[in-house]
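This part of the workshop introduces the protein records we will be handling. A record pairs a protein's sequence with a compact description of its fold. Backbone structure tokens are a discrete shorthand for how the chain folds in space. The question running through the whole workshop is how a given chain folds. The record below serves as our worked example for the rest of this section.
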Amino acid sequence: MLSNILLTDGDRELERRGHAFCRYADDGNIYVRSEKAGQRVLTSMTSFLEKRLKLRVNSAKSACARPSERKFLGYTLTHSGGRLRLRFAEESAARLRNRVREQLRQGRGRSLKRTIESLNPMLRGWANYFGLGESKQAWEELDGWIRRRLRGLIWRQAKTRRRRTELLRKGGLTEERAWHSARNGHGPWWNAGASHMNHAFPKAFFDRLGLVSLASTARYLQRLA
């Protein structure tokens, strides 16, 4: 609230100059047509904020760069199809992956259904916040990564070759293929991305267990917008 009060004069100065900008609290981006113009505006607005408003600009976090090289409130911009599109920043996706890893570490002794139930509120909240992101591929890659982590958990929990063979056979593999796949000697992450685990535990399997799809949630929110 204090940032909004203090920086109102900064907003008015940008409006007076005719600049396109976006600000939330004390974080903001100003959009201009060239790097030269960007450097000029960065210098002049830094001076305005520090000399006129008596505020200190964090030079370590301030820069003149292309929109795709910066993030704002967890989002970034990409150029696709002849226009700029919103997408979640890679740093935001990395934080989500870390949270999913932590949840799965805690869920090694739980059933898969319980683990998915613990993941869903976090996934739903993340998708609601970043639902304006327009990159279909980025959403689907994240969904695929989460399913792979869950397949790795299934593989790890099975523990023995016999149990893994039984799981793969129940998932539709032939007895011979299930037997050989269960004895391949690779670790959980490799097996989670291999064709035998994708065949036995496809997307439809996780849909039936109620796993929240980030891509589907984002598409639904975009239709509502």
In short: The chain has a mean pLDDT of 92.
